[in-house]
Amino acid sequence: MTAHISAKPGDIAESVLLPGDPLRAKWIAENFLDDASCYTEVRNMFGYTGTYKGKRVSVQGTGMGQPSASIYTHELLDVYGVKTVVRVGSAGAIHNDIELRDVVAGIGASTNSSMNRIRFNGVVDYAPVADFGLLRASVDAAAARGINLHVGQLYSSDTFYTDAPEVEAKLADYGILAIEMEAAAIYTLAAKFKARALALCTISDHILKGTELPAADRQESFVEMCEIALDAVTA
Ligand SMILES: O=P(O)(O)O[C@H]1O[C@H](CO)[C@@H](O)[C@H]1O
Ligand SMILES: O=c1cc[nH]c(=O)[nH]1
């Protein structure tokens, strides 16, 4: 048991999917896992363990933003022996070739967070990157299912509502595909704890095109992302 997760040792699988929304964790457990049971309800940040194609997999909500995601990722990797984490999030696209409902895999994650500046004494701009094997497994899984997976860079922002849209426009000019709020911290912690990490995101809104999925359509739009993530962690 940790400060934020009430699981007992052994309750959590070595591979964990990480949605920001704890209700997405519940939805994934109910719709994709067999024999799923809830191992934590602390702060209503639900976590479940079950099996997918016969292999144990867990799914843990992380909350929104890098501080919250870091708490759950740190405790999973440091205390519960987790070896593989895959964020299954939503994101806003900043690339014209990407559409609503598309899935993006983050090969790396730029960020405006100060967390890594603090971590590296303010002298290093650390580059948080995905695990190559996990990324390759997700590309293979998407291809096998006929899903068009976009692979490129994410931007993990500390703000959802920005006062500086010109920064996001410049990031688009520099090839960033989509904006979310957790991947950079998850990639960094996986590196620290010698684990594997990947962030997959479904596009819920398009910042350049000014479009968004209706709230009622969002859950269903996560199906392909979850299939890719589960195939990749059980490959
Ligand atoms: O849908 P999730 O996984 O929460 O991800 C995105 O949605 C939240 C903002 O609405 C942030 O957490 C962002 O990263
Ligand atoms: O962080 C996020 C998530 C979805 N859409 C955005 O614009 N930002």
Describe this structure in words.
By secondary structure, this protein is α/β, with parallel strands linked by helices. It has helices at residues 22-32, 66-78, 115-119, 132-145, 165-173, 183-192, 215-221, 223-233, and strands at residues 15-18, 34-40, 47-52, 55-60, 84-93, 103-111, 149-156, 176-180, 196-206, 211-212. The mean pLDDT is 97. A hairpin with a 2-residue loop joins strand 3 and strand 4 (55-60). The protein has a single domain (15-233), classed as Nucleoside phosphorylase domain (Rossmann fold). The chain has a five-stranded mixed beta barrel, surrounded by four helices. Helix content is 34%, strand content 29%. 1-O-phosphono-alpha-D-ribofuranose is lined by residues 19-21, 64, 89-90, 160, 180-182.
Task: Quickly describe the structure.
With about 240 residues, this protein is α/β, with parallel strands linked by helices. Helices cover about 35% and strands about 30% of the residues.
Radius of gyration: 16 Å
Please trace the helix and strand order, writing H or E for each element.
EHEEEHEEHHEHEHEEHH
Counting structural domains, the number is: 1
Given helix and strand content, the structural type is alpha/beta
Task: Give the name of the CATH superfamily.
Answer: Nucleoside phosphorylase domain
Termini distance?
29 Å
Strands, count: 10
CATH class categorisation: Alpha Beta
Q: Under the CATH scheme, which architecture would be assigned?
A: 3-Layer(aba) Sandwich
Arithmetic mean of pLDDT: 97
Q: Name the overall outline.
A: globular
Name the strands of the widest sheet in spatial order: 5-8-7-6-9
Percentage of residues assigned to helices:
25-40%
Alpha plus pi helix count: 8
Residue windows where pLDDT falls under 50 for at least 5 positions: none
